[in-house]
Structure to design on (713 residues):
């Protein structure tokens, strides 16, 4: 019999290294695909690099000016070189010959806006805290509320509470955010002005006002996700509580609370961690609807603006950032799983 | 937890039930009287256990035998108070060491579970929690009933028990997770968990079914050794007569939720009187028989517990059902004394007829 005891550390380290390497590759794939969508596809559709350059120049540009911009921004180069410059810009920054003087765009560099000619990254960096505030606050609410309701529903399956909460949850899953957002605004901002003059105030500036102005967006966003998580938790709990090991736990004479929390919930919630990681990563890339409905200057709102303006560098930046958050969230979940599920440590 | 006791309900089709019910003090360590466990299902009332009675003393082993769905497991879960479905209707009496369990408070049952009565389940693969170490799960069983012990003591006790059930290098393996254990080792761990509080009643529900044949024998030996060591009462549930032959002092044969025959193991193996028991004995493969000889098997399948056949529930599968007129088709047979004391059988065949059929038709083919 081979000596197998305690977590085998090398296996764990190898697992984590594999995941990190995988995540890095995934990030490259994300940038490559994003780049291809925005630069290769238009070219395949017949757009020339001159037309691309035209977006950086004012109306009715002279052919010389166009050619200069095209050359300075590197649009005349082969695509793989452009992609390389794009990646280089993100990691090391790059120098643009845009305008009469060369300008250095610091890493992470996503280029300049077509419209404002300002570097994209500082604008986004300014908006990340907004999206982060929204997502993190809502996540706390929905995890607590969703899991609590899900567990209670599962334990009191078929009761009035179960049916009522699952009915509300169904509504929560079905109602679109822009609907619930507008309703909550109409009720709590206009009819009963509890949360008036909603605007984003940085946490560092005024924590109380920050929280107060975010309550409605948090609750609105959390409503949708709470509903989702309540249903997932309920299903997970129902499944887990029917497992043989729960019967073993009861046969040991454990108190019902211990059976539910330590044996049932622990097993039911572990798969939820995966979903939570993905959801949070997705939201950090921009909670488009919520931010738009509540006029929060977050990444999502920025993305909408970028698409409306057809501002390619901005769209590229937002897409890359969204991909980055999801990949990183996934990586964290994978690593967390080592701690949560001992079976992962050995496979 | 819902444990409903319907003691005031009139007993269904049982003549001697009033007599057993009036008995004031239970004589035996475990005394199960007229246990009925019915479930309300969408298709109707499912009579999983329908009036089963038996007694068991400490230091003795009772084997409960029957096909799947005959009510063996439901009976044992009933004793452990583990039927939690709102649809379960439980009635009768279960006396454990002078204490009636069906009318006891759920908290009291919880205290008894794992302490005075413990259970080992059929599938060791799924009976352990995948996220906790084997040691943590065994320790938990100890601490549930010894809240004041510190972790160190409880852990030492777990190692001691793992040692006792034959886990090699128990002091190291105690920190393993269940998936690092083989099936046989998991079952040993579960036995260690069940025995850690020195229970006076151990219920083993098909403890060897999910295991390799070589491991089966080891586990059975272990259970026998432990019983001799601890002197507990053991209920061994199985569909395999070979298993009870090794361990049981008494045997109870269940069919469709009822006890069809019970008695000392020696009697049931040498002079069984119920055609169903004959069938069970006949379907045991034996090495000392010619390979081309076919096993005596019981034709057909166990009946639906919602729509039981009229009369004797076994009659559709019984080759002798038509030997005594219409009785087997219309009347439910009572469990009555057979030829030997302590041996009871529920069959309409006249006793001498049963013995004749067994001696002439059945025994030669076993």
């Amino acid at each position: 019999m081979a000596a197998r005891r305690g977590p085998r550390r090398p296996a764990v380290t190898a697992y984590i290294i594999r995941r990190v390497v995988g995540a890095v590759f995934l990030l490259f794939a994300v940038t490559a695909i994003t780049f291809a969508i925005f630069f290769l596809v238009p070219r395949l559709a017949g757009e020339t690099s001159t037309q691309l350059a035209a977006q950086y120049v004012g109306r009715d540009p002279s052919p010389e000016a166009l050619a200069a911009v095209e050359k300075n921004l590197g649009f005349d180069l082969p695509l793989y070189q452009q992609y390389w410059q794009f990646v280089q810009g993100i990691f090391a920054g790059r120098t643009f010959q845009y305008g009469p003087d060369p300008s250095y765009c610091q890493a992470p560099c996503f280029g300049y806006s077509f419209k404002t000619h300002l570097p994209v990254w500082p604008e986004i960096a300014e908006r990340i805290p907004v999206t982060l505030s929204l997502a993190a606050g809502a996540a706390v609410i929905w995890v607590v509320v969703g899991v609590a309701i899900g567990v209670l529903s599962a334990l009191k399956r078929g009761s009035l509470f179960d049916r009522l909460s699952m009915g509300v949850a169904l509504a929560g899953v079905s109602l679109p955010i822009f609907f619930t957002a507008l309703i909550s605004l109409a009720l709590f901002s206009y009819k009963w002005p509890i949360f008036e003059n909603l605007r984003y105030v940085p946490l560092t500036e005024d924590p109380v006002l920050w929280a107060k102005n975010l309550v409605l967006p948090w609750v609105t966003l959390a409503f949708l996700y709470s509903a989702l998580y309540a249903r997932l938790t309920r299903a997970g709990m129902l499944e887990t509580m029917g497992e043989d090991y729960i019967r073993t736990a009861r046969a040991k004479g454990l108190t019902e609370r211990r059976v539910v929390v330590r044996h049932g919930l622990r097993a039911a919630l572990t798969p939820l961690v995966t979903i939570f990681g993905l959801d949070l990563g997705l939201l950090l890339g921009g909670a488009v609807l919520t931010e738009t409905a509540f006029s929060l200057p977050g990444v999502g709102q920025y993305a909408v603006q970028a698409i409306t303006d057809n501002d390619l560098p901005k769209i590229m930046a937002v897409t890359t950032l969204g991909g980055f958050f999801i990949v990183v969230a996934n990586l964290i979940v994978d690593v967390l799983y080592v701690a949560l599920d001992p079976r992962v440590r050995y496979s | 937890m819902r444990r409903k006791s319907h003691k005031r309900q009139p007993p269904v089709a049982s003549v001697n039930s009033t007599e057993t019910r009036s008995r004031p003090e239970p004589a035996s360590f475990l005394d199960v009287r007229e246990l009925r466990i019915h479930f309300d299902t969408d298709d109707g009332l499912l009579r999983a256990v329908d009036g089963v009675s038996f007694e068991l003393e400490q230091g003795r082993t009772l084997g409960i035998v029957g096909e799947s769905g005959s009510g063996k497991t439901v009976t044992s879960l009933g004793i452990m108070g583990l039927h939690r479905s709102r649809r379960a209707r439980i009635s009768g009496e279960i006396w454990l060491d002078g204490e009636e369990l069906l009318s006891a408070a759920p908290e009291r049952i919880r205290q008894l579970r794992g302490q005075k009565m413990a259970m080992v389940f059929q599938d060791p693969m799924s009976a352990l929690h995948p996220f906790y170490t084997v040691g943590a799960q065994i320790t938990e069983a100890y601490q549930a009933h010894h809240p004041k012990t510190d972790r160190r003591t409880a852990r030492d006790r777990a190692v001691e028990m793992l040692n006792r059930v034959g886990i090699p290098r128990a002091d190291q393996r105690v920190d393993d997770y269940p998936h690092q254990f083989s099936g046989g080792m998991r079952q040993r761990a579960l036995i260690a968990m069940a025995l850690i509080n020195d229970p006076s009643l151990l219920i083993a529900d098909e403890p060897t079914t999910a295991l390799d044949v070589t491991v089966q024998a080891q586990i059975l030996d272990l259970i026998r050794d432990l019983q001799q060591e601890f002197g507990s009462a053991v209920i061994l549930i199985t569909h395999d007569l070979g298993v009870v032959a090794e361990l049981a002092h008494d045997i109870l044969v269940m069919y469709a939720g009822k006890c069809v025959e019970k008695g000392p193991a020696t009697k049931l193996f040498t002079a069984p009187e119920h055609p169903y028991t004959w069938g069970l004995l006949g379907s045991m493969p034996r090495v000392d028989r010619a390979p081309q000889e076919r096993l005596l098997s019981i034709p057909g399948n166990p009946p639906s517990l919602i729509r039981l056949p009229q009369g004797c529930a076994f009659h559709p599968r019984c080759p002798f059902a038509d030997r005594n007129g219409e009785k087997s088709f219309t009347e439910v047979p009572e469990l009555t004394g057979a030829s030997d004391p302590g041996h009871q059988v529920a069959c309409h065949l006249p006793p001498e007829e049963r013995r004749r059929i067994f001696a002439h038709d059945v025994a030669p083919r076993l």
